[in-house]
Amino acid sequence: MSIEIQSIAKQFGSFTALDKVNLKVETGELLALLGPSGCGKTTLLRIIAGLETPDGGQILFHGEDATDTHVRERQVGFVFQHYALFRHMTVFENVAFGLRVRPKHTRPNNTEIKRRVHELLNLVQLDWLADRYPAQLSGGQRQRIALARALAVEPKVLLLDEPFGALDTKVRKELRRWLKRLHEEVHVTSVFVTHDQEEALEVADRVVVMNKGRIEQVGTPEQVYDTPATPFVYQFLGDVNLFHSRVHGGFAQVGEHPVAGDGAVAYVRPHDIELLREPAPQTLVAKIDHVRAIGSIVRLELSLENGDPVEAELSRDAYAVQRYASGERVYIRPRSARVFAEDYAI
Amino acid sequence: MRFKQPSVLPGFNLAFGYTIVYLSLLVLIPLSALVIKTTSLSLAEFWQVVSSERVVAAYQLTFGASLIAAVINLFAGLLVAWVLVRYSFPGKRIVDALVDLPFALPTAVAGIALTTLYAPNGLIGEQLAKLGIQVAFKPLGVVVALTFIGLPFVVRTVQPVLQDLEAELEEAAACLGANRWQTFCKIIFPAALPALLTGFTLAFARAIGEYGSVIFIAGNIPLESEIVPLLIIGKLEQYDYAGATAIATVMLLISFVLILAINLIQWWHARRHGMRK
Predict the structure, then answer these.
(1) Which of A60, A36, A27 is nearest to A187 (CA)?
(2) Do residues A212 and A268 both lie within one domain?
(3) Is residue A61 part of a domain?
């Protein structure tokens, strides 16, 4: 089922959580709402679910206005950051809850409920935990149970609010892949909120980058990472070096990008910075302050003559050939850069 | 399970010793003295005292009325706690403070006030009398007084639990299609149940031992509206110390068994839900 969000606005007192947001979620896709905390992503998700009422605008589910539909009738599955499992019920009863509270004439009988719950528990690979209580499970297991519970009512839309936010890095990575696989299996329209760019880029079909109650960019993970529409997106998705044309003169002109004249800022990713030992045209002189090997990459911290810091990343192989040492003087130039006007500041 | 778990906080021996001494001085020694005094009676004499018609009637009234009052408080207390936690209204703080008044008020004052209200010529009693209901000087009056003094126990134990109940649980239930009544019955009530049981136990225990507020409104008619504590006082005034302790010992025993039973239910409940290992 598709979801259309039309100029949705929400104020909390004098704080604008959402400023006339428009967005279309296509049927069956897995969409990520990405942004820093306070950008309005969770509010938007809660408005889609019906847990929050918008001040203005409309939500269409499959072309039909659902703005005033109660959360009970919206048929959305919602997964909370802190699981919100019912502590006094077993895992089985948690998953069965949505089926048991149905009105009598649509409620499946006990054998049917049993079959469905075990089917879902098998889907999340936790059938062996059916008789445990939530307090006896690990965080990752709890979130998978929460997901099974949300899927039990056969929702038309699955909404996940920072689903992996409370878990440690390793479990997070596992669950990300698992969620991706699960989505390929059940193919329900899904929206998930995250502040972790890696998570959004890895899991989602499309990423919506939000900031201060507005949408900055919508696109596939490649699009938002490779061609960021705004400086904010550039900075939020990965590390970036800023070069002000005013300060660094001709440096902003290098690469294929046209010069934006005075007051331009060039955005360069650390892995796009090229290091040279010999002087060359359109380079800047920099001193290497620190060399740090982090897993598969080597990160160099440099400083320009005026003291501005620059970060560069090399692959291990490239570093093995060049063997830069801290304290060394090098010449840097960007392989590619994106130039934005200065007043487009963040 | 081990007797002593290693802990970063030192002082287990001191704290444990203090606990034992303190409990002994305040609870165990006085209560043992009570039981020992009772043994000055022979078994036959003891049985004669505690099985006399008047004493048995008093036991029935005390435990019966306490139980009814505690059950009333269970529901009324939950309701009051719910309103205080969930809604904001003008004067909420005053209402919140009112709940504690039965704690603070001298029980005799409460008893006299209730009697004045519920007596056949009192403000409420007069109206009820027209309906043929007499409260004061009847067992019903005992229930009223015990309900009054027991209310804060339930409210104050349930209130923090309701406050801590995550709104997300209700939102999750709503997303899954539960209506308000289902959410209350299946999510909120079970979550508050351990605290409700605790509040119930406290209110019940308090009501069993209550004296001051009851004696004014009860009328103290033997075999009808006479409570156990009053019987004990009566015996004491006649210098029948052994008789008084005999009645008290039986009361102590029943109370202890009842409270232990409720605690066991709670323990079993907590264990079943994996809150304790």
Answers:
(1) A27
(2) no
(3) yes
3-state secondary structure of A67: coil
CATH class for the region spanning B40-272: mainly alpha
User: Is residue A115 domain-shared with residue A185, that is, in the same domain?
Assistant: yes
Q: Where does the pLDDT of residue A177 fall: very low under 50, low under 70, confident under 90, or very high at 90 and above? A: confident
Q: What is the CATH number of the domain that holds A55?
A: 3.40.50.300
> Does A305 map to a domain?
yes
Chain B residue with minimal CA distance to A98? B176
- Provide the domain limits for residue A319: 242-341
Flag whether residue A107 sits within 8 Å of chain B, measured between CB atoms.
Answer: no
CA proximity to A167, closest of A131, A140, A205: A140
| pLDDT tens per residue, range B78-128 | 999 999 988 888 988 898 889 888 888 888 898 888 888 888 888 888 888
Distance from CA of A90 to the nearest CA of B (A): 8
Q: Is A86 on the interface with B (CB under 8 A)?
A: yes
Cβ distance B110 to B213 under 8 Å? yes
Q: How does pLDDT run across A92-151, given as a tens digit for each residue?
A: 999 999 999 988 888 888 999 999 999 999 888 888 999 998 888 888 899 989 999 998
Q: Domain boundary at A174, A205, A236, which?
A: A236
Secondary structure (DSSP) of B1-55: --SS---SS--HHHHHHHHHHHHIIIIIHHHHHHHHHHTTS-HHHHHHHHTSHHH
Search chain A and give the residue with CA nearest B176: A98
Query: Which of A84, A136, A153 has its CB closest to that of B168?
Result: A84
Last residue in a domain, options A197, A213, A236: A236
Q: How far is CA A190 from CA A71, A131, A147, B251, in A?
A: 16, 29, 12, 63
Check CB contact under 8 Å for A153 and B172: no
Instruction: Count the neighbouring beta carbons within 10 Å of the beta carbon of residue B16.
Output: 12
Domains identified in chain A, total number:
2
Please report whether residue A346 resides in a domain.
no
A165 belongs to a structural domain: yes
Among candidate residues B100, B199, B213, the one with its CA nearest the CA of residue B146 = B213
Sequence-separated (6 or more) residues with CB below 8 Å from residue A283: A251, A276, A331, A332, A333
The answer to whether residues A250 and A141 belong to one domain is no
